[in-house]
Amino acid sequence: MQIIKFILDLGPTVMMPIIIMLLGLLFRQGFPKAFRSGLTIGIGFAGIFLVIGMLTSNLSPATQAMVTNWGLHLDVMDVGWPIAAAISFGTPIVPAVFALGLFINVIMLAMNWTKTMDIDLWNYWHFIYAGALVMYLTNSAIMGIIASGITIIIILKLADWTQPYLVKVFDMPGISLPHTESVSWAPVGIFLNSLIDKIPGINKIDINPVKIQERFGVFGEPMLIGLVLGAFIGSLAGYDIKGIVQLSVNMAAVLFLMPRMVRILMEGLLPLSESGREYLNKRFPGKEVFIGLDAAVVIGHPSVMAVCLLMIPITLLLAAVLPGNRILPFTDLAGLPFCLLWAVAPTKGNVFRGLIISTILMVAILYIATDLAPVTTLMAKGVNFPFPEGTAAISSLDGGAHLIPYILYKIVELFH
Fold first, then answer.
1. How many other CB atoms sit within 10 Å of the CB of residue 216?
2. Which of 117, 357, 388, 409 gets the most CB atoms within 10 Å of its CB?
3. pLDDT tens per residue across span 18-48
4. 142-151, long-range: CB < 8 A, 24+ apart
5. What is the pTM for the complete model shown?
6. Side by side, which strands form the sheet with 116-118?
């Protein structure tokens, strides 16, 4: 556990370069090339997380202002994804799930049951979270580990299945996203998009930032879209002119910088992907392997960001009007691109369709987060998570987005 904790404490920006460098050496890249690839990827991730931090630090006050201005009062506080991560890393099954995850991935690759080589070790907490839910429900570590194993298998298969979208929509060949709170929703998003295809009139509407830019030039660029959406969010938050302008420029910066950070990351990743393909083709002709990464590498796409910025007020409105919802969205509103990525990807970047699908997914996420509030609160107390002052019950939108773990949890609950 101490070894795992040391590795995790390094963070993705340090851990990923080490993993990439070791993989490069395994694929016979040579030390200089492997070292450069690893360091470049680390820099790319550092840039991505800096931009995500900028997004969060600007949207959180705006979200708080909207909650206050709209007079929302709900008894479960959204304390964000850190609660799920804290619960996960605070459970005793962590070493077992790490070992099991690596074992399952290696076996599935060797047997051609998956093409995804999941190197996103930091986000193994997603798999541990599935196990933690079941473990607290059954009081059995064995049951928790089994739930984690089932989650790993399903997520790897979903990562394979959705990989073609990463090429078509995000231009990322050789990459897959075994990211639980994102890819769990891919089947739902793809199904809903196919339903929209069958609705006359609606199926012809296509609002796509790429096409807008082609038609309107500079006025359709992502940074202009960020500027407009920032002003919209600032106005809803009741900001003065100064606050609206500051938020607008910062949102423009986010949409401008994120794709550039991803390009830096891909600069380091492509040599690894090429050398890995050559290495595997020599030893296993025809075998294809995808590098499994954090969904952070694609959330900066203009369509994803546009939909998720618009979903902030929609999510607050849904929380206020949905009967039975108890969670007050807050911390995870800045993380909506992770939760709603697969509402946008199946539409090939169509913002109009992305908004329709995102709204449906968010209804489900709010109800799941509400349903998980009692067990989340119990588990949080078990790992001494610091509760916000005056808060009796907590949950998170991110926790509500872990669809596969939630389904397993409810199946076990049904028979427990």
1. 11
2. 357
3. 878 888 888 778 888 888 888 888 888 788 7
4. 143/412, 144/91, 144/93, 145/93, 145/96, 145/97, 145/100, 147/405, 147/408, 147/409, 147/412, 148/93, 148/97, 148/100, 148/101, 149/100, 149/104, 150/408, 151/126, 151/127, 151/180, 151/404, 151/405, 151/408
5. 0.84
6. 116-118, 290-292, 175-176
